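LOG
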Amino acid sequence: MFRIGIISDTHNHLDARLPQLFQGVDHILHGGDVGLPWLIAELERIAPVTAVLGNTDSGIRLKETEAVQLAGKKFLVHHIVEARNLSEALQRRMDEEQPDVVVFGHTHRPCCATQGQTLYLNPGYAGKPRFNLPRSVAILSCDDGHLAARFIDL
């Protein structure tokens, strides 16, 4: 089984429990609003990381969109995604990549929904507590081609 830690909207805050929660994951996908480069370096101590730029990120060199193949599935990572109203540029990239999974952030709300053949996964907000929003991450398990997402409250 291949396990992927999914995190977003850390806003330069790394929960102290994260290394334990993500222990044993094979890869980490970060949906943007990372903060500063130190946070990616800390996540890389757990597993390889693919991360994207969020709308509040500055001082960090990341792309707006990343595509990565993991466990035989194609993942597209982009910060702001409205599945029913994709921007023209993102729609082109979706058409090019034909991802099995889209990982995103921005809303600070966990989401796991399928549209067509694509799973859209937002792990929720993992930054410092604010706005009374729940804080969470997710683990996506890929077992023999089947995907299963599990949200973990922080």
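LOG (cont.) second protein
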Amino acid sequence: MALERPPTLRNLSIPESSILPKGELDEPEDKSAVLAVDLTNPFAAAAPNQHNPFANRGRQFWLVYLALCMSSFLSALDLTAVSTALPSMAAEFQSSEFSWVGSAYALTSTALIPWTGNLASIFGRRSTLLGSLVLFAVGSALVGSARSMTMVIAGRSIQGVGGGGILTMTEIVVVDLVPLADRGTFFGVIGSVWAVASAIGPPIGGALASAGAWRWLFYMNIPLAGIAFVLVLCFLRIKAPKTTLKEKLEQMDYLNVIFVIGATSTIVGLTWGGVAHPWISYQVLVPLILGFTIMGVFLWLEKAYVKHPTIPFDILSHRTSLLGFATTFLHGIVSLAAVYYLTVFFQAAKGASPVQAGIDTFSLSFTVAPLSIITGVVIGYQGIYKAWNMIGWGLTTLGFGITSLMRYDCSKAASIGLPILMGLGLGILYSSTNFPVLAPLKASQQPHAMAFFSFMRAFGEVFGISIGATILQNSLAADLPKEFLAKFNGEAEIAFSAIPNIVELAEPLRSQVREAFASSLRVIWLTMVFISGVGFILSLFIQDIKLTTETDERWGMSDDRSVPKAVLDEEQK
């Protein structure tokens, strides 16, 4: 039933802006799905969710959810902890290719995410998640036992395939088991798990590296992945459409190999640009041009010829979903730039050790975690998400602006306290950005949309690191004292190779170098202010659409205990 609007202007249905292009799915089929929003109180829901999202969920659901949280924790911990262990790894193998340890993981995890979603639809959620856990564990074992940097890079590539699959499958399984109206709470918890793992990752990596035990950073993944594997194997009994092997193979999108090649080439160019090679060099331009061209050809072939495309073109025609994907990409940029380069600030500008730098970023990470949970719970209860996206982007924009005030000689309290506002905004966005993507869609479209959501976020994270690295490299080349630059003989990766040398410098050179780093990082923060501002503007055109209480029955738990009884009763009516 449509919500009644009083004769005053106090409650208005907010339409989407006509300046954006219209698509086939612009208007929701159910006109009552467009919520009436109280303009005097943007947080007031028209029809709050009345049932407890945690109620009536059986033991099977909670054990599966524990496995999902554990898997996300593993992936996030490994992604962030490696950064502080890299110097020890490079020193042991006496290799200059240490930058590929991080790049190889990002490359494979991002490029293969869309295909992971395709495999999950064909071969089932459990098989795909189990395969991802196995690949992650195998990659961890290879890196832990590596005898050369080549073996480390190969292991990290395999880890990336598994890690990307874990993140994608975690979100798809939650979509399968929990209706959108309740999903914010569960995504909020997973987002907080990610934030906590990201916070403790650098100190753990630095501590193990300092003790000469960096290999245990990877070995410890194996038993934890094993526990998650057993839980998924025993308890994730999700229904799936019954098809023969021949039918499964016929549904495979083999053209996706073209996309993987294009995405890989693009990510290589982004990773090298401004760091390993100048942006105008052929080493960067060739893979970038080739990658974007190949991905463009792939999109054309997918739309024209593929019956079961990997890229969900049908869901991209709704403006709110399209805006959701765009803001997810921007959130990927700013969130990883915040975590990655705040650590650089503490090490380079404040002289902190890798372990201490990781601890100093707790003010950011442990702000993100609770806000992620709170936002998910509140959105689930109120049923609106536009206001929370606007507030999230507003706080993030303001937070980056305040963070840009940090100097190399600012107080400890200032350097730890100023990024908190940024953390508040990022925490809200961790839980709120998926709702605009999913709310306009049918339950059967949402798992496919989540796979593309994961890809856009991961692709944005690659951009975030690349943009920051380029700014840092170019700014340092202009700001660092000439006598300090002379020590590196034009080395491409001066931004990161210079940090360990700062502590050995005599005054006043040491302070000059730290000031140069702080000034260069300020340019990154201001760039993120602009990107966050774009996110805020886009969020203005998002439409609040009623959050459904349905899930795709083809993929539910076999005993139906994953869905609260109140929802089942409502659906049966």
